[in-house]
Sequence to fold (394 residues):
Amino acid sequence: MKSRINLEVFKNFVQSSNFGGFLLFLCVIISLVIANTSLAIPLQEILATKIGFENETIHLNYSISMWINDGLMAIFFLLVGLEIKREMVEGELSSPKKAVLPIIAAIGGAVVPALIYIGFNGSTPTSAGWGIPMATDIAFALAVISLLDKRIPSSLKIFLAALAIVDDLIAILVIAIFYSSGIEFTYLALAGMGMVILVLMNRFDVKNPYLYLIPGVFIWYFVHHSGIHATIAGVLVAMTLPTNISDEESPLERLEHALVKPVNFLIIPIFAFANTNITVHKEMIAGLTSPLGLGISLGLILGKPIGIVTTSFICAKLKIGQLPLNAKMVHMVGLGLLAGIGFTMSIFISMLSFNEPIFVEEAKLAVLLTSLIAGVLGYIVLRFWGGKAKKKVA
Fold:
């Protein structure tokens, strides 16, 4: 009798959180390869193809690239918003004692990289990109730390998740305030009316989470035309879904669970594939050592750990907050490096920062290379020095 191939290992891997990170990395590699072959122009033509509907009153005819960046990414931001609200109601951000350290560390990890970038680009044509090194890619960072399993204190993963969620909130506010175009108040008022409807649905205890998505689609449309970046609509809708602190699954948690796999296994990989098709040439390689490239690279790989470790150390010394259970400063250095994995949000802000294509491409390349280096260094620090520190604590 022939033995069957054991697919259990593969099945478990596909169902694990690490598969999302693997798929994301694979899409980046494929996109980069295509962008540097004869298939680059056909891919760009496909992404520039317009699809949709348009007449005198409705304007929904956009390129595939814009549908990905403004449409699909709104669903990504919806999931981020759900995670933020859940953490604020029942998680690591639900009380001042729990929230103070990840909040302050996230602020430090956002401000220091921005200052480093401004230091290199303050009076140059690329000064608008200061928000690029502020962001952390929560999916990639958590995927890397999950590889360490029991070699580090389990509290570190919870802390990193809370820090990355606050980091996402900061990035969302930065996008809404600094990277939105002129405001159209009529559309903004219509979006506000949609939000009133959602708040009333919450007050009247509407349990079906998918009913919240119907006004949400209209809010997305109005926000898109208001001048505020359309992805912010996802966060606004998320904040209206009801949740609770009991063991009973809330509407928010139902929608969050429904979105996790489509976002991690489909939307983010598609976004990565569509936005990392970078045709590398000499000018871009030189751009890595330009003020733009250095501001992004040093902001992510130095600014993030410096900001996070410094603020964590000050908070611990002043008894404002406590380090994660069984964690040492070497663990915080490793976390700071993992927070330097900017990727999704950093690339997204890169596209909002510049009108010149060469600046966008240079920024994307700098984000890609630096995120890879930050992930490897963070893993090494936590795997070897962090593992030794854990043994000493034990």
User: Anything to note?
Assistant: The mean pLDDT is 85. The longest helix spans residues 357-393. The two ends are 50 Å apart (CA to CA).
